[in-house]
Write a structure and sequence with these properties.
Keywords: Membrane, Transmembrane, Transmembrane helix. By secondary structure, the protein is an all-alpha fold. Helix 6 packs across helix 7. The chain has two domains: about 160 residues, no CATH class; about 60 residues.
Amino acid sequence: MNRAQALSKLNRSDMRNAAAERGTQRIFAWNRAHWIGMVVLIAVLLLLQWSSSMYLMPDEVLDRAAKILFVWFPGMVLHWPLVLGITNLILGSIRSGSLSFPLASAIIGPLAFGCTNLRLRPGFPYRSWAQWWKLMHAESGHQLLVHSLIGSAMLLICYTAVAFICYAIGSYGLRELFVDPNPQTASGRLLTWIRQDAIRFGCWLATAIMYGLLLALTLRGGMAAMAAALLINFVIPPALLVINGIYALRPGLTDVSVEKPAVPVGVHTGTCADAHGAHHGV
């Protein structure tokens, strides 16, 4: 092997290493979309933590919770996994998504719910920090800490599975269908039509969702009918005002300028004085 071949082989190796490094950076990137998703998840998580002490449980549930020292609230097993899965579906379906988001989003849930369990008395407000510190120095405090760690580990396994499965569905399924589809397929033609006028599609979609929610609440009856009355009186009118204003500001409706017809090159555009002179033979 001569010197030129050795240098060429070395350059190819460097290029492969650089490409692998760029691929790793793309897989574990962090950008604005990740920050937006994380802010949404933290807001929902804080709301679920705050509402955890408001559940009124039957006595047998409270007795069992006192023995196992870890309380499984509906927010842990229903609301949070649902929000976590939807968020990772969205982040997986966009081009800027990366594996950093499902990893980070799966970790914050067990951390928050583990801290909640340490300070929570089911059916009562949270313990104060003084009460919590006193409990940690007692014998039952160590048991509570161990059970909270075990419960958080179980939550971490479940949330990691939910986050990565939903991210994979969004990345390998929804992205191909709705972000980079084949133009010859039905989803590709639909996406092309949406991209032609995204504001029009968004306005129609928001209107359909709003009236669909109104219809569902009306058919449900009871307290839902009261919510429907509040919706149609106080939410729908300003929402329609905003939607119609946005719809009217579409580029296709605001460009009303009339273009003058182009004059062919070499054609003389005479004035009225030229025409008058030609009439009298001047």
